[in-house]
Structures are given as C-alpha cells and as structure tokens.
Amino acid sequence: MASIARKNLFEDIPRFLVAQAGIMFAVSLVTIQTGILNGFTRSTALLIDQSSADLWVGSEDMLQLEVTLPMPLQNLVTARQVKGVARAEALMIRTGLWRSSSGSIEPVRIYGFDPKGQLLAANWKFISGDLAKLDAPYTVLIDRASRNTLDLQDVGNTGKIGSLPANLVGIVADTQSIASSAYIFTSLENANAYGTAGLTSSLNCRLTGDDIKCLNSFATLPDNQPTNIPPPKALSFTDPITYILVKAKPGQDLQDLKQRLAKQLSGTRVYTQAEIADKTRTYWKSRTGVGFILGLGSVVGIIVGMVVVSQILYSSVADHIKEFGTLKAMGASDWVIAGIITEQALWMAILGYLPSMALCVGLGFWTMSAKGIMILITPATAIGILGVTIIMCVGSAMFAIQKVTRVDPAIVFKA
Amino acid sequence: MADSQVNLAEPAPDADQVASTSVIADGHIHQAIVARAVSMAYQSGNERFEVLKGIDLEIKQGDIHLLMGPSGSGKTTLLSILAGILTPVTGTVHLLGAEITSMSREQLAQFRLEHIGFIFQESNLFPALTALENVEVTLKIEGVHGHSNRRQRALELLDQVKMANKANHLPRHLSGGQKQLVAIARALAGNPELIMADEPTAALDSHSGHTVVELLRTLAKEAGKTVLMVTHDPRIVDLADRIAYLEDGLLRSSS
Ligand SMILES: Nc1ncnc2c1ncn2[C@@H]1O[C@H](COP(=O)(O)OP(=O)(O)O)[C@@H](O)[C@H]1O
Ligand SMILES: [Mg+2]
C-alpha cells in the first residue's frame, strides 16, 4: 500500500538517519542501564540461586548474604537432629586479602563449604578443574569473572591469602556477585585458616623517643614461604560458621520445618532459598541507590530521544504542510492526518528499536566475556523497552500532529 | 452518516431528497451553488478590510462557471467561502441544496470529502509518492476499501486524465501540466458533483493549460459535474457557460 508515512520517512535519508541515531541512542541507553541493573541485582544472589538447599539458616540480624553475624559450628549438629531435615551443611564466609603471584593485593571473600556436600556446589558449571581436589589443604576455586582480578589464569596457578598459600584447582561460572569482592571457594577448614591468616590489622608499634614506629606483621613475613606449612587444623564446635544449608526430607512442609529449626537454634532466622535471594537483591537495590542512578540515565536517554524524534517529525511535517493542507481542504479529518504522522512515528520506533536491541545484545556478550559485567536483557525487558520506545516516538509526534491539526486548509490557496 | 444533514446519495443527489433538505425559498433545485448576501472582511492590525460586500451568486448544475477579476479582488476568498473552507462574516451558502454556512467544522470536512473536488494553482502532490500512490491515498481517505480495489480505481482515474502511462512516476519526473492532470485525477477520486479550481492553469504553458481546461469541460459536459473556476486566462473564456467578474467586493455577472 502507498503509505504516506513510510514514504515520507525515507524521502530524506540523511534526516531519517539522524532520527534513527537519536532513537538508537535513547533505546541503547535505556537497554544498557536496565540490563546492567538486571545483571547487577541478579548477580548479587547468583550463589543462592545456584544452590540446591531448601532452607538457609542464618543470623537473625542478617541484612544480606554477606552482611550477617556468625554462629557456632555446634548449630550444624543440632540442625541435623531436627525432624524433617534430610541434609544440613555448613557455609562459612570470611574476608581476606589476596596476594597474587605478581605481588598485587586484592580483597577477597572466602566461602568455605564441604566439598563432598550436595547443597552449595552441586549445580556449578566448571570451566576447568573440578571439586574433587578441593579436599586437599590450601586448594581453592574461583569464578571466571575474577580471573584477571586475582591474576589466576588456569588450574595450577597460585597466590597467597595472608601468609598461607592458595592453589587453584578449578574455575566455575556464574557465581560471582558484581557488588562483592572476588570470591574464593574452598573447604571449611581452609576457609577457617585463611580467615585468620590476614593479620592485616595487626601492627607492631614501638615508641622510640617522640616517634611511633610501626611494622605490619603481614609485611614482615618472609617472601620465601617455608616448604612445610602445616595443614589447616580441623574445626571445633566453637568455630564460627555463617549459614546452615538445609535439605528437607521429601514431602516435608517447609514452613513447619522453618519453625522447628528456628526454635532449636536460638539467635537464628530461617529463610527459604527464594526469601534469602530476594532479601539480598532488595538490599542491593535499595541500599545502594543503584536503581536510581541507572534509572536517571534511562530518563536522560528518553529525553534526548524525544527531543530528536519530535524535532525530526516536526520538520518533516513542516516540509509537507501544503500537502497536508491539501488533504485537509479535500476533507480529510484531523484523525486521518494524525494517523499518518503516528504511523510515521511507529515506523521510526520499530526501525530504531531493532538495531538498538541487536547492538545491546552484542554489547552484552562482549561485556560479559571481556569484563565479566552482565547486561541482562530478559524477554520482559526487551518487550518493556519496545513499549517505552513506542511511547517515546508516538509521544514525540504530538507536536507535529498539533502543527497539522492547527493548519488552516485555506493556506493551500496561497501560491 | 444517515443522521447528517449533508446526507446526499452518490453519485448525484436525488432531486426529491435535495428538495426536501433544501431551504432555498425560490426552490431552485437545479442550482448547484447558491450564495446569498455573502460578505467577508479581513482584520489586519486595527484596519478592517472588506473584501466581499454582499455577493449573490447562483450556479447551475453541470455548468462551467468562471470567476474573473483583478488580482487581490477577493476571488480566492469567495471560492474558499463557496467551498466551505472559509466562513463568511454574513450571508449563506447552499451547495447541492444543503446550507453549508451553518455546518460545524467536522460536518464541513465531511461534506467537502463527499461532494467537492479541489484543484489548486499548484498540484500539491506528495513528492515521495508516485502519481498512482497519490491518487490511492486520496481514495483511502475517501473511504474506498481494499488495496487492489484502490489500485484499480486509481488507474482508472489516471486513465481518465490520460496519465495511466505515467502512473509510477514521482511528481518530480512529471511536467507541471502532467502534475496538474494527476491532481485532477485525485480531485475526481471521491466522484464529486462539484469541482472547485483556483487558477489551475496559471502555472502552466498554454498547451498544457489547454489540455487541463478541455478536460474540465469534458467533465462538466459529459459527467454532469459543476465546475467553478477562478482564472485570469482569457483563452478559457470561450469554454465557459457563464462568467462572473469580481471587482471592489461586488459581483458583475454575464453569460
Ligand atoms: N488571511 C488573510 N488575511 C488578511 N488579508 C487577506 C487574507 N487573505 C486574503 N487577504 C486579502 O484579501 C484580498 C483578497 O485576496 P484574494 O481573495 O486572495 O484575492 P484574489 O484571489 O482575487 O487575488 C487581498 O487584498 C488579500 O491581501
Ligand atoms: Mg487568488
């Protein structure tokens, strides 16, 4: 069909391209900001999503996965005796300071768990290596997103945590939170040892005259580590752990089990997997203001898009004002003419949206592989942004439509 | 549409219906256009400038009627009023028996769409659309349904103005005369009873001007359409049934 809208659009190609550039700028900005927000919030609870526990027992003061208080290992023994519990495994979270083989330092979050367990790591995707060697002293796994940060390219590479060695035995995918320090996965015993091996805050200070001379004990450790470092000591019941991951017996009502566990373990609160994931995501979204900042970027994108699109549509209509006036003189209603301009705006929306989305998906792959930053474009996001694009373009058509509906058809008689 | 006072059967109004909707006192049901005491003034700054000072005019159905007069005498203004595009300060206009001077803006647009074909000094074709598409778009606005239906009808209309062989040309590849012929085809899209033309030959050379005028005359005489044409062109005078001269805001008629 002879579509005035479409033909007018392509009549002036440079102008069309400027319009498309404006729309693509807006769409890409909105998509990337939303994608980063999605990827960010998703990543903060990836570890929880990957686990296969039914319930997580944590401190009653817990704010999010990594901000919480410890409980004694004794709790694990108690939990295992609660009726309806099929399995219970400890998860220990510590912080530490990583020293790479090249000497640079990096804060890390150390996750200690039972390598023979089934609740935390059973679903992990291994890029290289496997869980089997994690039993050995001072062996670790990392996420592929932290390879460069930790200067660990492959299995066999090493670094140090505090004064203790760390040998890489495996690399996994999709566990790392963007909001957190690099993750180090290791056994409970290793984690416990690493957690107290930092010594970064302990200074040896001496008063000499009016001066205070301080030496960081960490810095004073010899570079050449002794060849026979004792293996980490076994855990005692008073050692602190962070969570207990619980698998319920088949057919067990989770709400009942939650209550039984909470009753047995004072000072704790029990979450389902979905609840703790949600609490963690919500924390990051609301406590950091990241949503607001990225949202602000989207709004700027939409404003720029609207300015460009209204400008282009307006000038296109102004160029054809006599032709539109002629249609009005012939008796075309304002609705018909508004329809033509709206159709033009819709074409602009679609033709701007498609390449932008392709661009953003491509960019997302690149940032993921090159930077480990996820731009998560879900189908719902893609559809939502199509809606935003259409509203943006059609909304921008208002000025152009107003110009035409206000035009007096008598102008066509003026030569 | 049945509730509209402008409801007139296509293609030509049935005489009884016209008579019944007509409020013309002297019952001139053969008059396509009747203007009574039409006056018009423009305000420019504090000055009020009277262009038309009580115009009376009757144009018979099927006539080709010229409106002549010096530049600035108000010919375009009068044509716009008779076509329902401008509203006069005082006076009434009846078209095909219906009083257009009492219609709303929307009713007027609908009336023009159904009953009037326009030809302007410039063809005002959409430059991005071919001759055929320009006519098709008008058919779409006229409410003709179906793509192939419109295409066929548009080709017929172009054929009627001897432009079928240029159907797929863009306006910029057509001469001024050819564009004006396409504009006439477009004006005929709604099968209007009235054709209103404002200096349709002014921008044309004498040969294409002649073609255009011949075509308009054929339409009047063979298809029974009423043609009201503003012109300066003395060569057209021979073809007219009647000529009205506008000067100093008053009309002087002659046959
Ligand atoms: N919209 C308007 N506002 C003010 N004056 C107008 C307007 N349109 C026309 N005129 C004036 O009215 C007079 C008649 O104009 P017009 O009807 O275009 O004459 P013609 O078509 O005979 O040349 C001219 O003097 C013109 O300047
Ligand atoms: Mg004029």
Structural account:
- The complex is a heterodimer of chains A (415) and B (255).
- A six-stranded mixed barrel of chain A has the order 3-4-9-6-8-7.
- Chain A contains twelve helices and 14 strands.
- Chain A has two domains: 2-43 and 289-413, no CATH class; 61-266, no CATH class.
- With 415 residues, chain A is of the alpha+beta class.
- The longest helix of chain A has 38 residues, at 334-371.
- Chain B has 255 residues and is an alpha/beta fold.
- Chain B is 32% helix and 26% strand.
- Chain B has helices at residues 15-21, 75-82, 105-115, 131-141, 147-160, 176-187, 206-223; strands spanning 31-44, 47-60, 64-68, 90-95, 98-99, 116-119, 194-198, 226-230, 242-247, 250-254.
- In chain B, the strands form two sheets. A six-stranded mixed beta sheet of chain B has the order 6-7-8-3-9-10. A four-stranded antiparallel beta sheet of chain B has the order 2-1-4-5, with helices on one face.
- Chain B is globular.
- The termini of chain B are far apart.
- Residues 1-28 of chain B have low confidence and may be disordered.
- Residues 75-76, 198 of chain B line the site of magnesium ion.
Number of strands of chain A: 14
**Strand proportion of chain B:** 25-35%
Give the beta-strand count of chain B.
Answer: 10
Biggest β-sheet: strands ordered side by side in the sheet of chain B:
6-7-8-3-9-10
Regions with little confidence, pLDDT below 50 for 5+ residues of chain A: 218-223
> Uncertain runs of chain B with pLDDT below 50, 5 residues or more?
1-28
Determine Rg of chain A (CA atoms, Å): 30 Å
What is the number of helices of chain A?
Answer: 12
Task: Give the spatial strand order of the biggest sheet of chain A.
Answer: 3-4-9-6-8-7
Over the alpha carbons, how many angstroms does the gyration radius of chain B reach? 18 Å
Ligand names: adenosine-5'-diphosphate, magnesium ion
Largest interface: A-B, 26 and 40 residues
- pLDDT average of chain B, as an integer? 86
Largest sheet of chain A: 6 strands, mixed, barrel
Domains counted in the coordinates of chain A: how many? Answer: 2
Globally, the shape of chain A reads elongated
Structural class of chain A: alpha+beta
Helix content of chain B: 25-40%
